[in-house]
């Protein structure tokens, strides 16, 4: 049985309002948890970790001419959304212990984007440019090479063999109460609550 994660803070206001946080965590994420528990009951997925379920249920693109073949899309979507939101909520802090990346992560960002500011602009632009609902991710491959992924719906780096480091949720439920349609304003506002200590740990572990 999966359970709703506890938030490691009481509030992220004013960057994310308490109303948005309450709906996003208490309603949206709770629904994905409830759905997944129902979907996997009595199946081979029961007892597996979220990451294992995401990998096992990920859509498979057939090389045959008939096109894409999906397996367990409902399980993939709900497990992915729990994994994504768990990573999302735990990367934030009202008082980040590190407000900028340091060490090997900062060095890699500077190597690939030239500066933190250039990386942040690219990340925001890819979040704004993602059509419809989804997630923009900073991910690492097994050699530590970084990439920004635009993932639709519940998709995530784990489903592509990459390590998830940082994510901004671009589903409208993440920002509509606070910013209505202004996704770009929401994404730009998030940087001060990103705890780079958490993100850096994900990179080096
Ligand atoms: Mn969300």
Mean pLDDT: 94
CATH class of the largest domain: Alpha Beta
**DSSP summary, beta strand count:** 5
Stated plainly, the CATH topology of the largest domain is called minor pseudopilin epsh fold
Shape: globular
**Gap between N and C termini:** 26 Å
Helix/sheet category: alpha+beta
Task: Give the helix level as a range of percent.
Answer: 40-55%
Largest sheet: 3 strands, antiparallel
Bound molecules: manganese (II) ion
> Ranges with pLDDT <50 over ≥5 residues?
62-70
Helix and strand sequence: HHEEHHHEEEHHH
**Lateral strand order in the biggest sheet:** 4-3-5
Second rung of CATH, namely the architecture of the largest domain:
3-Layer(bab) Sandwich
User: What's the CATH H-level homologous superfamily of the largest domain?
Assistant: Iron/manganese superoxide dismutase, C-terminal domain
In percent, how much strand structure appears in the residues?
A: 5-15%
Tally of separate domains:
2
Task: Indicate the radius of gyration in whole angstroms.
Answer: 17 Å
What is the number of helices?
8
State the gist of this model.
The protein is α+β, with helices and mostly antiparallel strands.
3D architecture notes:
By secondary structure, this protein is α+β, with helices and mostly antiparallel strands. The protein folds into two domains: 73 residues, Orthogonal Bundle (Helix Hairpins), CATH 1.10.287.990; 102 residues, minor pseudopilin epsh fold (3-Layer(bab) Sandwich). Helix content is 46%, strand content 12%. It is built from eight helices and five strands. The chain has a three-stranded antiparallel beta sheet, sandwiched between helices. A two-stranded antiparallel ribbon has the order 1-2. It is globular and about 50 Å long. About 4% of the residues have low confidence. It binds manganese (II) ion (MN). The site of manganese (II) ion (MN) has 7 residues, from helix 1. The site of manganese (II) ion has 7 residues, from helix 1.
């Amino acid at each position: 049985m999966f359970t709703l994660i506890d938030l490691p803070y009481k509030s992220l206001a004013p960057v994310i309002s308490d109303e948005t946080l309450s709906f996003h965590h208490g309603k949206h994420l709770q629904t994905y948890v409830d759905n997944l528990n129902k979907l996997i009951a009595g199946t081979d997925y029961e007892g597996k970790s979220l990451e294992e379920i995401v990998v096992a249920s990920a859509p498979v693109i057939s090389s045959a001419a008939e096109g894409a073949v999906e397996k367990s899309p409902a399980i993939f979507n709900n497990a992915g959304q729990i994994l994504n939101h768990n990573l999302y909520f735990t990367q934030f802090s009202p008082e980040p212990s590190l407000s900028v990346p340091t060490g090997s992560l900062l060095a890699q960002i500077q190597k690939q984007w030239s500066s933190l500011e250039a990386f942040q602009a690219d990340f925001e632009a890819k979040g704004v440019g993602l059509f419809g609902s989804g997630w923009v991710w900073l991910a690492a491959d097994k050699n530590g090479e970084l990439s920004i992924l635009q993932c639709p719906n519940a998709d995530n780096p784990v489903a592509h063999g990459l390590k998830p480091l940082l994510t901004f949720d671009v589903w409208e439920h993440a920002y509509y109460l606070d910013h209505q349609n202004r996704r770009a304003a929401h994404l730009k506002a998030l940087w001060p609550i990103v705890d780079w200590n958490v993100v850096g740990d994900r990179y080096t572990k």
